Amino acid sequence: MRRLRACLGAAAAVTLAAAGTTALVASNASGATSALGNRWYAAAPYLMPLDNDPPDPAAIMDATGLKAFQLAFVLAPNGGGCTPTWGGTAPVSSDTAVQSVINTIRAKGGDVSVSIGGYGGTKLGQACSDAVSTAAAYQQVITKYGLHAIDFDLEEPEYENTAAVRNEIGAAKILQQNNPGLYVSVTTAGTADGTGWFGKQMLLEAKSQGFTPNNFSIMPFDGGFNGAASQTSALTNFNTILQSTFGWDQATAYAHEGFSGMNGRSDTGEYFSQADFQTVLDYATSHHMDRFTFWSLNRDRQCTPADNGGRTSGTCSSVTQNSWDFAKYSVKFSGVTPPTGTPTPTPTPTPTPTSCKTAWNASAVYTAGDEVSYGKHNWKAKWWTQNETPGAAEWGPWQDEGAC
């Protein structure tokens, strides 16, 4: 894939009870803080704290009332090994940059979940030898940041690897057992039928291991979807799959089901507007679903002609919007009414213009970390690449580092 009216009142209370909401107290882990209620972790939109021109989370909190963020993504090191990194390049063990973002959020009364996996890079379930070592790597992340919530984003190509999925699901079960009250979501691809063959195999793996997370979420985009009606149809079909896989009744299945959308223009050129998000939000709350999130806050702002030019961007939505329009649907799902006035903005420094790197060359070979410029943006290679145009797809080999 990556990736919505009034206060919820009684409906929220029913959902919270069905999902087993708790207000946790953190252990003495480094960076720990008192937990939010699970409904906030269920509503947390994705944020890339190190890439895709990260927005200021404090400004988003001031403008929308949002309290929780889903930080993405923890991966195995690009050079190999079974230790956690941010994006394959920044070791969690020595991280200070993401910790600073988390500190900012927590200082304002918020909290974070961390998402592991995603579309690109090598996942720890692929790199580690078994579920125990995979769990040990993720435990480092939980302990480092004092986490109360974690998201397993199982996508291509990892979820096509039986051993890797077994490691990830096994690790999720171990973490759930070793960290009482940990909120665990499992996110995977969505199709018109709910989820595809590999998604169904993942559910069967969870069943065989006796693992039940707080929710299984699907991403109904990048699969021929067209607006909210196609997404709610997929959610209905996915509910049927959960019932048949786990032997749940409809209400129990919805209480363990989640939605993870994409705001604005998707990678395949689908469009999802604010009205689409509202329709799916209404569906999620009326069916007492456990989770409503989206990819991503980095994209929750309007593009300028220089930023976009008709392509999918990692830094803006490609639809007409005010900044943080889509984040407000997450706030509503949490049971809170977003502010209607204009809040006092959190001061941010005036950005320094960024110089352009050496121009991209189609015949050149680039490896992870190499930087180029193309289309008045700077780009960083995520892995080995040649003759792949920067920005052709959000999940291609190039990471957009913003305008230059």
How confident overall, as mean pLDDT? 88
Total count of strands? 17
Radius of gyration: 20 Å
Helix and strand succession? HHEHEEEHEHHEHEHEHHEEEHEHEEEEE
Helix content: 25-40%
Inertia-based shape: globular
Number of helices: 12
Beta-strand content:
15-25%
* Major β-sheet profile: 10 strands, mixed
What is the distance, rounded to the nearest whole angstrom, between the alpha carbons of the first and last residues?
A: 26 Å
- pLDDT below 50 for ≥5 consecutive residues: which ranges? 3-30, 342-351
Strand-helix topology:
Blueprint: H1 9-19, H2 38-43, E1 46-47, H3 57-64, E2 68-75, E3 85-86, E4 90-91, H4 97-107, E5 111-117, H5 124-127, H6 131-145, E6 149-153, H7 162-178, E7 183-189, H8 197-209, E8 215-219, H9 228-246, H10 250-255, E9 257-262, E10 264-265, E11 271-272, H11 274-286, E12 291-295, H12 327-334, E13 365-366, E14 371-374, E15 377-381, E16 385-386, E17 398-403
Parallel strand pairs: 1-2, 2-5, 5-6, 6-7, 7-8, 8-9, 9-12
Antiparallel strand pairs: 2-3, 3-4, 10-11, 13-16, 14-15, 15-17
Helix pairs in contact: 6-7, 7-8, 8-9, 9-11
